[in-house]
């Protein structure tokens, strides 16, 4: 046998065995046996390198064939052992994942909430339950391993209460800088210019509008009296998630449309969310007022037409039910029986894509108009990465549950919103 061929064969066997040493699927005892085999093979390679006579090499090869074959048999047996171990581990992992689908997982999740006074405690306590049930995760990712039933409750709460919030632009960022040049592009100081030999060049004047969108903790606390009974833990969690989530989303809607209504120095003010409704126009919002003794539909149409929408993105208009009824009513003559257009027909008349009725506008605003895709949100990816935890106020006989999220937002597109003020 050629010396180099046999040497390459042994070297390949050594490398194969070395890869086994880093495996987590074999015991320390097996690793020790593998290392002894590697040492033996290295010794054989050294012997081959020391031989130059071809006949002597062939004799050595014959002597070592049985040894190498035995090593190969042991390696085959070890690989079978590793494959069995990997299969058992995979089966165990699948079994552990099934824990999240059980009622026990919901019960443990509820217990983790009850025994936590802070968000960090909640993550740690839930992480212990996961670990006890064979689910190993990285610290900080506990929220990604919720019981299946709880995920369903969160999804249901979002679907039921989010409404038009789903259509906003979620940046996925913790903070976002909005920067636009708001100079009049038709002004001479803004226009691009031609140049002639010997002439000078004038710089463009830029008027920059910049604002920082940054998230803020927005929370809802629900107090559950000890006398309030729930049939099971899932019902309790469903109530807490549903109640706290609906109020958080309602407040975010209020803040976006008209602001949260609190004074600037109020400790509870939500100031991370820019309100569209305002009394004075700016670079992002057009403001007009209802015409006295005029037709409301004309004022509404003018408001919608004032939106800057070169990409023809969907436009939403928010108004009261009373005003929608006024816009829908059609009467061909003073004595004719009135009929009402559908909401879709009114959208066509206004030039918008969707009309949403709301009581949030109050008496100061008749309508708010926006391009949802141009309202940028920062913080939690979809506003519903809930952080649930609780504490006990024994002297009040209460369990207190808190749900909080991180959210902020503001208008990104220039003139992508509009407001119609009341008279």
What would you say this structure looks like, in words?
With 423 residues, the chain is of the alpha+beta class. It has three domains: 96 residues; 45 residues, no CATH class; 210 residues, 2-Layer Sandwich (hypothetical protein PF0899 fold). It is built from ten helices and 14 strands. Strands 1, 4, 11, 12 and 13 form a five-stranded mixed sheet that branches. A five-stranded mixed sheet has the order 5-14-10-6-9. A two-stranded antiparallel ribbon has the order 2-3. Helix 1 runs antiparallel to helix 2. It is elongated.
Strand content: 15-25%
Query: Could you give the order of the helices and strands?
Result: HHHHHHEEEEHEHEHEEHEEEEEE
Q: Identify the CATH architecture of the largest domain.
A: 2-Layer Sandwich
Question: Which regions are unreliable across 5 or more consecutive residues at pLDDT < 50?
Answer: 91-95
- Shape from CA axes? elongated
The total tally of domains equals 3
**Rg value:** 35 Å
CATH class identity of the largest domain: Alpha Beta
CATH topology of the largest domain: hypothetical protein PF0899 fold
**How many strands?**
14
Binned, the helix content reads 40-55%
Query: What does the main sheet amount to?
Result: 5 strands, mixed
Mean pLDDT score, rounded? 82
- What separation lies between the terminal Cα atoms? 103 Å
Total helices: the number is 10
- Give the helix/strand class: alpha+beta
Fourth CATH level, the homologous superfamily of the largest domain = hypothetical protein PF0899 domain
